[in-house]
Amino acid sequence: MSDHEEKNIKFKVPSDVAKIMKQWGGHSVKLAAARGALPMSGPNLVTVLFIFYYGEDKELKAEALNTLKDLSPGILKSVCIKADIHPEILDLLARLHFTDMRVMEPLLTNRMVGLKTLHFVAEHASGDVLDLLASNDIAIRQDKSLRILIINNPHVDKVTKIRLGWKEEIASPAPEKVVEPVEEKTLRADKKKAPLEDEEEFDISTLSKYQQLLDMPVAEKIKMGLTGDKEWRSLLIREANKLISSAVLKNPRISEAEVLMVAKNRATSDDLIRIILLNREWVKNYDMKKALIVHPRTPLQNAMRFMTFLTDKDIKELAKSRNVTQAIVNNARRMMMTKKY
Prior knowledge:
Blueprint: H1 2-5, H2 15-22, H3 27-34, H4 42-53, H5 58-70, H6 73-80, H7 87-97, H8 101-108, H9 115-124, H10 127-134, H11 137-142, H12 144-152, H13 158-163, H14 181-191, H15 194-214, H16 218-227, H17 230-236, H18 242-249, H19 256-264, H20 270-278, H21 280-283, H22 286-294, H23 300-307, H24 312-319, H25 326-339
Helix pairs in contact: 3-5, 4-5, 6-8, 7-8, 7-9, 8-10, 9-10, 9-12, 16-18, 18-20, 19-22, 22-23, 23-25, 24-25
């Protein structure tokens, strides 16, 4: 973050924060504030830490940075959902917490998030955070460089790259070698099949399907979701229209592994999670239960019920997890105490 730290940022201190800071006398009080030890709301605390971080006092700067790194996802979320939050605050939080979906989901969907923040996330994020950004069609249409950054991210999957317009490089055939007549005849026979078949297979598959998808009416997308093959399903499950994405889960050809990937994606909508929960065969799967327990959109009562099926090891992991709600953590700890781990 060194390059980012050196920038001079113009920031108007909110009046309520200014009033709080005026009451602080000596350095020791400011140091306590930088350590998060003074009573303040989450947004006010983060604003104060932001001011200290970009201030001239090196001690306050270091303490503020440590506190910003250690703040709970709940506090950070209360900041990221504010409609009037300064873009530079969102940028700093993104650079510190770009791996945490609980923070990044409200941050990336805040209308105040800046382009440089989206570029940073596009370059460095992975997993659900990267998937969430890649599904922001409006931002990607407005800024071509964002699309390129996502495509070049080493963590992005091939389906997402193709959906964003990436075309796979097809290697040129190697120069022909001079061979004996019998071997040359064999080589010619092989050439009638291999290179052209490989190229045609790619053209007919995911890329052409995505191109067809761009002009496909909703009714046809729903039909394709209900009947299409795996490549169609992988494209249509990402559609924002819940009728289309829901149709994919109703496709009789969908595999349990595909459904598990949907359950593991923290960006998956409430509607899809609800459909998964209603399928008794899917939720019999142990890994499916684990994925649903930690998913932010699984109703708490369902998550609690699934926890009773977990192994001792997984209960222990949940008890100290930072990727689930406090209610799940507390329940895991109660279960540990009951079983006297």
